[in-house]
């Protein structure tokens, strides 16, 4: 790497105001540093990946600023070498971690090492038989029960391929006939057809049993036939928050949408869009009009149905408030997808691969490509001058992904700040006022905090807690790019 590029990279790293889920600083002189770093590498790989920066002190632990925080890996070369050997204890191995990327400090005497940790896409990594995940700023060891739960939530285990003891005759439905005709399959009993297409197989007793995917694709009432909760629940509220006390603000009775998945998606689209077209009549007499594009809503619901974790016993929830629509889907982002790259990179696989494979065979399949669906959502929201879709997940939500579509026009201040952050990564209140022309500090603070509350920005309070040192970044922007 060229010297000037190293300098810019190092400058950007030193501007990171605090450790996060994907960033950790480590001096090699710390106690038990090798053990801590190995655990962090495992935790980051099992979550969303990240970067461990060796040779720079954690901003929370020091009062030093800028280049003075650099101690370099040469502070203890023996520890550095030990770390290179101990990385081999990670099981299964994480390739490409070592040797790390080295950056020279401006004085030419110190070196900083960057260990880029990829998100695992096949199975959990462990060290000493312990599995760790990364929280907001720290690591957490999973219990045996949590390992199983997370394995399905992350897509390492596929619930759609599991066998379900359901009478095969219950799958001889109009949906099955429609699928069979589209595939030009003639004759043969349902048992043979499903077995040949991978939608059924023999159990330990030699009996042909359908997979969960088959039940979800063809059964009229899959929710009643399985232990899985696979319906869609739709809630509508007055106001912008959910009140569950003495005066609940729920409008009417929540709607439960069931049926085979093609029907479920179609019925959910129609029902939710009908509610949005009708708007909400609020107590003051005014009527809330929804500007959210229909395609964005349809894509959010479709993605939730197709890519959810069917091992988790929880329905998809669609919640309609005056200022937004939320779609909450059980399960975490699978494979290589993270909150910062969804819609920008193509997924390396599907959590429900068997399900997706056969949904494609219906005459009018829904859009099954999550990458293109998210891009379409962003495009449609931008075309209406609305905020981009927001994706909220772990660690804020332990086992789900929530998509938020704001029913709110983007002010010019947001356009200026988001453009600034795409180039500069962080912004303070003072910088935000310079960029937007807003004069009052309190007004700017209120806007920044509101965007952070909505999930558009992440607020980073400095270790000192000093108010003026608070910075903000785009919620879908990584701290360091490889």
Commentary on this structure:
By secondary structure, the protein is an alpha+beta fold. It folds into 4 domains: 3-142, 2-Layer Sandwich (Methyltransferase, Cobalt-precorrin-4 Transmethylase, Domain 2), CATH 3.30.950; 159-225, no CATH class; 232-406, Heat Shock Protein 90, CATH 3.30.565.60; 412-474, Winged helix-like DNA-binding domain superfamily/Winged helix DNA-binding domain (Arc Repressor Mutant, subunit A, Orthogonal Bundle). Helices cover 33% and strands 15% of the residues. It contains 15 helices and 18 strands. It has helices at residues 3-14, 33-45, 77-86, 144-153, 174-182, 190-196, 212-218, 222-225, 261-278, 294-307, 353-359, 370-383, 412-424, 429-436, 441-454, and strands at residues 23-26, 50-54, 101-104, 111-117, 132-134, 139-141, 200-202, 208-210, 232-236, 255-257, 280-281, 287-288, 316-320, 324-330, 390-392, 400-406, 457-460, 471-474. It has a 6-stranded mixed sheet with strand order 10-9-13-14-16-15, covered by helices on one side. The chain has a 4-stranded mixed sheet with strand order 1-2-4-3, sandwiched between helices. A hairpin with a 3-residue loop joins strand 13 (316-320) and strand 14. Helix 9 (261-278) packs antiparallel against helix 10 and helix 14 packs across helix 15 (441-454). It starts with a helix and ends in an 8-residue tail after the last strand. The relative contact order is 0.10.
């Amino acid at each position: 790497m060229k010297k000037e590029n190293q300098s810019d990279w190092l400058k950007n790293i030193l501007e990171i105001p605090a450790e996060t889920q994907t960033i950790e600083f480590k001096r090699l002189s710390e106690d038990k540093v090798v053990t801590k770093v190995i655990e962090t590498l495992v935790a980051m790989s099992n979550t969303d990946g990240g970067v461990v920066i060796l040779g720079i002190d954690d901003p929370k632990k020091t009062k030093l600023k800028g280049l003075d925080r650099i101690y370099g890996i040469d502070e203890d070369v023996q520890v550095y070498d030990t770390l290179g050997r101990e990385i081999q204890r990670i099981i299964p191995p994480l390739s490409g971690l070592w040797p790390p990327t080295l950056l020279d400090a401006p004085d030419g005497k110190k070196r900083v090492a960057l260990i880029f940790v990829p998100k695992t896409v096949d199975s959990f990594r462990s060290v000493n038989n312990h599995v760790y995940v990364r929280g907001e700023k720290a690591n957490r060891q999973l219990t045996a029960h949590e390992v199983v739960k997370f394995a399905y939530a992350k897509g390492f285990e596929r619930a759609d391929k599991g066998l379900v003891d359901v009478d095969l005759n219950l799958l001889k439905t109009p949906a099955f006939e429609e699928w069979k005709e589209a595939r030009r399959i003639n004759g043969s009993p349902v048992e043979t057809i499903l077995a040949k297409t991978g939608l059924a197989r023999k159990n330990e007793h030699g009996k042909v049993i359908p997979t969960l995917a088959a039940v979800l694709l063809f059964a009229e009432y899959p929710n009643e036939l399985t232990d899985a909760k696979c319906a869609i629940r739709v809630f509508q509220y007055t106001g912008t928050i959910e009140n569950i006390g003495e005066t609940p603000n729920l409008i009417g009775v929540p709607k439960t949408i069931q049926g085979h998945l093609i029907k479920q998606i179609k019925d959910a689209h129609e029902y939710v869009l009908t509610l949005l077209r009708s708007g909400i009549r609020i107590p003051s007499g005014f009527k809330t009009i929804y500007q959210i594009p229909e395609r964005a809503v349809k894509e959010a619901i479709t993605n939730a149905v197709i890519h959810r974790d069917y091992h988790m016993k929880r329905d998809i929830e669609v919640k309609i408030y005056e200022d937004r629509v939320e779609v909450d889907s059980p399960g975490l982002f699978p494979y290589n997808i993270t909150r910062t790259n969804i819609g920008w990179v193509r997924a390396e696989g599907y959590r429900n691969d068997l399900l997706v494979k056969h949904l494609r065979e219906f005459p009018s399949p829904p859009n099954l490509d999550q990458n293109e669906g998210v891009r379409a959502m962003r495009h449609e929201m931008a075309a209406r001058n609305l905020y981009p879709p927001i994706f909220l997940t772990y660690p804020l939500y332990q086992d789900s992904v929530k998509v938020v579509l704001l029913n709110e026009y983007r002010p010019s201040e947001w356009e200026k700040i988001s453009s600034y952050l795409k180039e500069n990564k962080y912004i303070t209140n003072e910088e935000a006022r310079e960029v937007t022309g807003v004069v009052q500090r309190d007004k700017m603070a209120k806007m920044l905090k509101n965007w952070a509350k909505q999930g558009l920005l992440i607020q980073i309070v400095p270790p000192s807690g000093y108010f003026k040192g608070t910075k903000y970044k785009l919620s879908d922007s990584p701290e360091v790019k490889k």
